[in-house]
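Page 37, continued from 36.
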């Protein structure tokens, strides 16, 4: 073993190291003393929101041992729904987890927001075609062709509902027939929609029917899929789910 007093290290360097070490130790003590007075993390938000406008009861439903939030800012052939069902299947297969032991949150926001509109709205707005069109007068933006699961024609009904994938659904975009919103919510999956993103279908109604924002908004909200909970934004919804213990997956 090398002896510090007899090693080839110059004495000045050795003393300098001692001084530096003492300073580091003192600094460490100072930092630990001061950091110890600070909270290591922000406290979880209060269970009681300050505004009754938003339904936060879904947070109390996150009681499963396994928790996951899927963030879907784009449609991408309904990838988020397939991922959610895949996650549920995986925990059931490996751990024998029951639906009550798995808490999944699916956040639909940004360009994916038409996915949570019902059949009537898909038909009225001809979303299968409208979502494939170019944005205004700009260059065409490549988009997924949204086909009816059975006929293959541009969808005039929501193609992300399991009830619309009955029979020979050879054009279904989802990998599982039970990966639609209706089937997932029946198994306890929480679906949250972004209020900010609703501006897109609201704008479509305003232009189509020559009505004001309030009228168009009321119509859109009346045609949201049953069970979907609207949050101030998808960003907030995703963050709140993580604070409640969900791990994150970007769809």
């Amino acid at each position: 073993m090398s002896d510090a007093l007899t090693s080839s290290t110059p004495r000045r360097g050795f003393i300098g190291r001692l001084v530096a070490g003492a300073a580091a130790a003192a600094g460490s003590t100072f930092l630990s003393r001061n950091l110890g007075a600070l909270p290591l993390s922000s406290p979880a938000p209060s269970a009681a929101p300050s505004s009754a406008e938003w339904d936060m009861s879904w947070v109390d439903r996150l009681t499963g041992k396994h928790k996951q939030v899927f963030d879907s800012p784009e449609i991408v052939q309904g990838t988020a729904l397939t991922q959610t069902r895949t996650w549920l299947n995986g925990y059931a297969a490996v751990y024998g987890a029951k639906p009550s032991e798995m808490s999944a949150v699916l956040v639909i926001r940004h360009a994916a927001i038409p996915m949570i509109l019902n059949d009537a709205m898909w038909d009225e707005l001809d979303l299968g075609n409208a979502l494939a069109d170019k944005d205004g007068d700009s260059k065409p933006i490549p988009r997924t062709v949204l086909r009816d699961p059975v006929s293959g024609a541009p969808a005039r009904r929501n193609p992300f509902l399991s009830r619309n994938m009955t029979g020979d659904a050879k054009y279904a975009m989802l990998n599982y027939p039970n990966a639609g919103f209706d089937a997932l919510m029946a198994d306890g999956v929480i679906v949250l929609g972004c209020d900010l993103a609703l501006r897109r279908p609201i704008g479509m109604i305003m232009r189509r029917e020559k009505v004001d924002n309030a009228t168009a908004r009321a119509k859109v909200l009346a045609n949201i899929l049953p069970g979907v909970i609207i949050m101030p934004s998808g960003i907030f919804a995703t963050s709140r789910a993580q604070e409640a213990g969900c791990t994150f997956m970007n769809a």
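The longest strand covers residues 66-72. Flag for discussion at group meeting. The helical segments are 11-35, 79-95, 119-124, 127-130, 181-186, 199-209, 213-222, 234-243.
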